[in-house]
Amino acid sequence: MQRMTRLVLGLLVVSGVLAAGALAAAPQNTKEPTIDGKMMTGQTLTADKGEWSGNPADFNYQWQRCDNDGASCGDISGATSKTYKLTDADVGNTVRVQVKAMNSDGSTTASSKTTDVISGNAAPRATSKPTISGKAQVGETLTADPGKWAEGPSSFAYQWQLCDKNGGNCKDIAGATGKTYGVRSGDKDNTIRVQVTAKNLVGSTTENSDHSVVVTAGATPTPTPAPTPVGVGGAISITAVSLPDRLVVSQIQFTPRVIHNRRDTITARFKVTEANQGKAVAGALVYAIAVPSNRVTRSGEVQTNSSGFATITFKPLRALPMKAGARINFFVRARKAGENVLAGVSTRRLVSVGINPTR
To answer: What is the CATH number of the domain that holds 278?
Structure first.
């Protein structure tokens, strides 16, 4: 009887310990921390700790400085209070706050979203002017670099201009407001430049690049005895690609590189090459769709150009998750017209682009 009593008491003690252990839990974040204040040097930001379960008894704060894309975050020395005064070191970067909640069972840390780019207390000022890369040749693509700017611009706008052969009498090219510009036949014997407008909380400033060299006609392919059809830009024709050779989606370029909101158009450029010698392929049919498909608008098949690139644009939809660290995946297919979409020389690839929402 005594043995049975000891056994029952032992089970009660053990079950009591297990029950107490099951109830122990560190705090859990149910609503992420937020930051309030004007994103300008000299201004003071205030952290809201967010919402937590587990009845935390205490909170610690650590402010972090990140790059202008909201990545590569590192602790700011001494910035461990609920408020943080922005300094000149923050201009051109973003910041976030980490909140550590503690109770008797442990601790948990949650991070806020990164802020917009921190502005200086004056309008942006160019420290090195914008530049243009690429060939000033009909059929080629020019790319603008915004240059270097002081006072922390949060955004850049582009306007390409057509100038005379001496670089004067420049006029806006209608609709040419992207970071890249495809040189047209009407540009021949003129020069091109780009205007970049940088904007921050104080104002905006526009700076011009130097003009390009005089635009020339596209190079004419050198005739060869080989029967391989060749595109204007040097790419081989899709008609020259047959099994056992295959197509490859070899390059992917997204503009913007990181999605910050649901307002801006997403431009994707896909380069198609053949697997045997890596030559660009003109006339291949490229199709891309988001996975899941309700994230962005759909688009039909687009042919690759004489450089082997197909350009497809998408508009974000409400289902696109605007959450820091999230990514949107795209299924991409390249094929030869007349062949089964899943056979022949066709190829498929899954690619993605990051999401980092701005406030």
So the answer is: 2.60.40.10
What gap in Å lies between CA 346 and CA 344, rounded to an integer? 6
Task: Give the tens place of pLDDT for each residue, 77-123.
Answer: 999 999 999 999 999 999 999 999 999 999 999 999 999 999 999 99
- How far is the first Cα of the chain from the last one, in angstroms, to the nearest whole number? 71
Torsional class of 50: left (φ above 0), alpha (ψ -120 to 50), beta (otherwise): left
H or E stretch covering 327: strand 327-335
Within a domain: 287: yes
Residue 14 lies in a domain: no
**Residue 234, helix vs strand vs coil:** coil
Q: Assign residue 58 a region (left: φ > 0; alpha: ψ between -120 and 50; beta: otherwise).
A: beta
Q: What is the pLDDT of residue 202?
A: 94
Residue type, 359: R
Structure confidence at residue 178 (pLDDT):
93
Tell me the H-state helices in 55-125: none
Residue 254 has φ and ψ, to the nearest 5°, of -110, 135
**What is the domain range of residue 195?**
125-208
